Amino acid sequence: MTPSSDIAIIGAGIVGLATAWQLLELEPSLRLVVIDKERGVARHQTSHNSGVIHSGIYYTPGSGKAVLCREGVSRMVDFAREQGLAHDICGKLIVATTEEEIPRLRGIQARGIENGLDGLRWLDPTEAREIEPHVQCLAAVHVPQTGIIDYGSVAERLHQLLLAKGVVFRLGESIRSITEQRDGVTIHTEQGEVTCQTLVACTGLWADHVARMAGLTPDVHIVPFRGEYYKLSPKAASLVRHLIYPVPDPAFPFLGVHFTRMIRGGVEAGPNAVLALKREGYHRTDLSLTDTAEILAYPGFRKIAARYWRTGLAEQWRSWNKSAYLRTLQRLIPNLTARDLMPGGSGVRAQALRPDGSLVDDFDFLETERMIHVLNAPSPAATASLAIGDRIARKAIRHFIPAPLPNS
Ligand SMILES: Cc1cc2nc3c(=O)[nH]c(=O)nc-3n(C[C@H](O)[C@H](O)[C@H](O)COP(=O)(O)OP(=O)(O)OC[C@H]3O[C@@H](n4cnc5c(N)ncnc54)[C@H](O)[C@@H]3O)c2cc1C
Prior knowledge:
Blueprint: E1 5-10, H1 14-26, E2 32-36, E3 52-53, H2 64-83, E4 87-88, E5 92-96, H3 101-114, E6 121-123, H4 125-131, E7 139-143, E8 147-149, H5 151-164, E9 168-171, E10 175-181, E11 184-189, E12 192-201, H6 207-213, E13 221-232, E14 243-246, E15 258-261, E16 267-270, E17 274-275, H7 289-297, H8 299-320, H9 322-330, E18 341-353, E19 364-367, E20 371-376, H10 381-396
Parallel strand pairs: 1-2, 1-12, 2-9, 5-14, 12-20
Antiparallel strand pairs: 3-8, 4-8, 5-7, 6-7, 10-11, 11-12, 13-16, 13-17, 13-18, 14-15, 15-16, 19-20
Helix pairs in contact: 1-5, 1-10, 2-10, 8-9
Bound molecules: flavin-adenine dinucleotide (FAD).
Flavin-adenine dinucleotide (FAD) binds next to helix 1, strand 2, strand 18 and helix 10.
């Protein structure tokens, strides 16, 4: 086979784009092609998220999330500075509102210290209100490293820079099938064929499908969880100065509805986490019979549903009932009223689930001789994208550079 490109990347979300960027940092002469089914870059998770630069406080020490998030923060902030992209390391409060959350909050602070975060401060309610005057809590931790950015803009900038470096973008081209051979990979798209020596697939909500298209049998299934936001009215936006998060429920990988000041102005409240009945189902009424049937048929889903049906129903109720959503937010800011909440956007998380019903917590990859499939890249993957991209690039490049690469 004489491949038309050295490395092909499927998926022009922030993980795919960051991988292309890091590949060229390591080896500028590589011929890269990026393929995406949408007509523009970053049309899914990358442009439908909270825009938070996560500090790395929550994650199990030594895990991929902990290591790559910590490294990713500095890479992301350096990139934003170099490129003049708007961002703000404004810090956040994680607040305990019940007695039982206090030991969990202590645990989060201890974890943050283990993960190398400096300057975490334990605050009593008066100290917390010096930072966020309208917050109600029994205790809080201030995390100075957390920031905000627009990941859609980061992705758009990467796109422009990659085009300038000669990367070929095949946008609006869906993948039909993938064939791995001994000496390369052939990708069959709706418009034709792309051949490459190595394939990297960063396809978010479709990661398991794309792996199966390539003849693999991933041991996970992607379950879409929609996160719905409200926007605070301009008057109510003054109730939030920075970011305010609850203590997360350890049983779930999501961080709980929170308040986020957005880099483009305004404050968002959310996101919740409801099962989406369509992989790209951004609206409550979106339904795909194929996607729903697949979810229901998956043994892992049936197990998690049996375990957490009460939580699932409560989330659904909160999704349809504004007063229920408001009550959750009022635990953090009691002065908030229904009139302060205006309809916001939504995003759909790609969350990998195992057949035993456990959610895959860490970033997860499936590799063969010539392919790397990113199977699970949930939050904080946008924060960590440049670090994830670096690790993928180092693996993908092994066919091109025989000598070991220097460590990052
Ligand atoms: C509601 C919500 C809030 C979040 N908040 C944060 C946050 O504050 N901070 C943070 O760090 N992270 C956050 N995240 C997580 C973050 O957004 C994702 O981890 C990250 O964007 C994943 O990037 P990605 O490139 O893997 O996926 P995506 O951005 O989803 O990109 C995947 C791409 O693959 C393409 N694709 C899929 N299938 C095919 C196919 N068959 N053929 C061709 N192309 C295909 C899609 O079109 C898409 O462009 C949040 C996510 C959500 C949903």
